[in-house]
Specification:
There is one protein chain. This protein is an alpha+beta fold and 142 residues long. 27% of the residues lie in helices and 44% in strands.
């Protein structure tokens, strides 16, 4: 269990925080797939080399903490908190997410992700505050 958690922390640090895109393949099996980052989109390891810079272009001072985790067999579930600053304004940005990873040895074989991207885009100013409440009340974002 501790090895899986260490691998996840290393992935978050090396790729998402430090931006070392050349290390992405060191974390995945060749046939690995990540689901849930965007609706209807499966992401393969090589595609993280496009996703990571896109997010890092919006955020600076990224800090990722694993708040809770549970492991069983080849699986690890983690609740994650991301704190950063908006690159364009330095306003604080905070959002959470969950991911579930299946390992084959020391590599990620499957990943299921769900992050609160609405909160992230609210903090970045790309969505209005309380977007979820507005949408639940029947408002339309224009």
């Amino acid at each position: 269990m501790d090895r899986k958690l260490d691998l996840l922390q290393n992935w978050l640090q090396r790729v998402w925080i430090d931006g070392y895109l050349d290390t992405i393949d060191q974390f995945f099996t060749p046939a690995a797939c990540a689901r849930g980052l965007m609706a209807g989109l499966d992401i393969h390891p090589d595609e993280f080399a496009e996703l990571v810079p896109a997010l890092r272009a919006l955020l600076t001072g990224i800090d990722v903490q694993i708040a809770r985790h549970v492991g069983t067999g080849d699986w690890l579930w983690a609740l994650i908190t991301v704190k950063a600053r908006a690159r364009h304004s330095l306003a604080p940005v905070e959002f959470s997410g969950q991911l579930m990873l299946r390992f084959e040895g020391d590599l990620f074989a499957e990943a299921y992700n769900h992050f609160d991207m609405i909160a992230m885009f609210e903090h970045l100013g790309a969505l209005p505050p309380e977007t979820m409440a507005l949408c639940l009340s029947g408002e339309r974002l224009r």
